Amino acid sequence: MTFEEKLNRGFELLQDKDIDHSLDTARELQRENPEAHEAFYLEALIMQQLNQYEMSLTSVGKALEINSENAVYLNLRGNLYMQLEKLVPAEKDFDKAIELTDSASAHRNKVMLMLMTDRGADAIPYLINRIKADPRDPENWILMGDMIKRGGQTDKARTYYEQALNIDPDNEYAMRQLEES
Question: How far are the Cα atoms of 51, 66, 115 from residue 93, in angstroms, in the given order?
Fold first, then answer.
């Protein structure tokens, strides 16, 4: 099996929740090619799945040492920092990921961070701008629906979940939110 085939297999194993074999694959790939940032990223995702955030941080840190301009890795590290309530470095990573690729998931994480740091007044216009910039991204509509729902405006929140379903009719989260309201 080639490196790429093994890596893909490691990601498949992780997706299938076969954590042990996925981790074995990641570590085998790291031994085969210590400069392969993807193998460290795989390990970081595995550790995140296990809620081992510090270990995940170490692994994604190694991936970033090899490939420092990777928005996906920066977004993951920012998310891990956020889980550990290290909010300043989290925001720096989200900002860098946004600067590099305009990462939609980094934008959403930044909104979540704004809410966590009592900047909800900034989060709403930020998210509205994201919806205007990318109206076909159902996750932005869902996040806005969640924010509005938490604010007590269930009927208005429904319209955002409905819009998300217009874009992604199979979105289970949006369906559940409509069923619950």
Answer: 20, 16, 17
